[in-house]
UniProtKB/TrEMBL annotation:
Cited InterPro entries: GPCR_Rhodpsn, GPCR_Rhodpsn_7TM, Olfact_rcpt, Olfactory_GPCR
Protein known as: Olfactory receptor
SUPFAM superfamilies assigned to the protein according to its UniProt record, in alphabetical order: Family A G protein-coupled receptor-like
Function, in words: Putative odorant or sperm cell receptor.
GO molecular function: G protein-coupled receptor activity; olfactory receptor activity
Pfam families documented for this protein: 7tm_4
Gene Ontology cellular component list: plasma membrane
Top-level taxon of the source organism: Eukaryota
Organism: Panthera leo (Lion)
Membrane topology of this protein: Multi-pass membrane protein
Database matches in Gene3D superfamilies: Rhodopsin 7-helix transmembrane proteins
Family to which this protein belongs: Belongs to the G-protein coupled receptor 1 family.
Amino acid sequence: MANLTAVTAFLLRGFSPVPELQLLSTATFLLIYLATVLGNITIVAAVTHDARLHTPMYFFLKHLSLVDICSVSTTLPRALVATMLGSREISLCACASQLFAFVCLGSTECFLITSMAFDRCLAIYKPLVYTAIMSPQTCVSLVAVAWGSGLLFSAFHTANTFSLPFCGPNVIEHFFCDIPPLMRLACANADAHEAAGSTASGCIIMSCFALTVLSYVRIVATVFQIHSTAGRWKAFSTCSSHLATVLLFYGTGSSAYMQPAASYSPMQGRVAAVFYSVLTPTLNPLIYSLRNKDMKGALKKLYLQVPF
């Protein structure tokens, strides 16, 4: 071990290990990145400028869109530039910073989605006291807790990962610095670090998921107590977009951080990362705009104000 040299930089493999596919994947991800940023910026602008959308649900949605913009901008721009310029190197500090930002934003999104589930549950289960409980101060506090918890969770994972020694090889089988491929590069036994990371991720993810499920159990129970079919549909339609976001988020992202590093597959890791780090931020604006009349109206109003 004494003869091994500490790694000061890593090499990112990129979108595909096949060189012939790099150009095609770069063009595809560039278009996806532009669509993601434009879609989420549009959501933020619509919620900000339309007074009808100044409600707790859209307040959380605006912050969710901001998180999605930052999250996709943490990974894709560097990967795109590296592929186009042929420079795949990333310094140890830059890699740690990217991991910290990505995990922070991902966990913040998890906490925001849980807050949105609580908001929808309260709106349907306790409509008479909803406005009093979900005051602007409460909404700001929930968002602040989400960001603070995300920072703490990310600080733990970054310290847990980079306290391992890296002394070669230094090729990360991914298009950004992520925990599972980094753990595989450690030149020491990472079992304890892996167990600590999996335990922390499992506790946070399962706690947020359990709270979200409980919120929807209460929502479903309340909806079935409504006698009219039209009333049931109206109540459920207010949370259908959020439910789609929940299924997309937990269906794509949770498994990536709860599986052992020993069973990690580079190809499966890339595919999973595309879903939870790229497609989820891309689809969220579509989910909330296509099935929401208020958002459709706000977007139409916003587009009419744009000079061409």
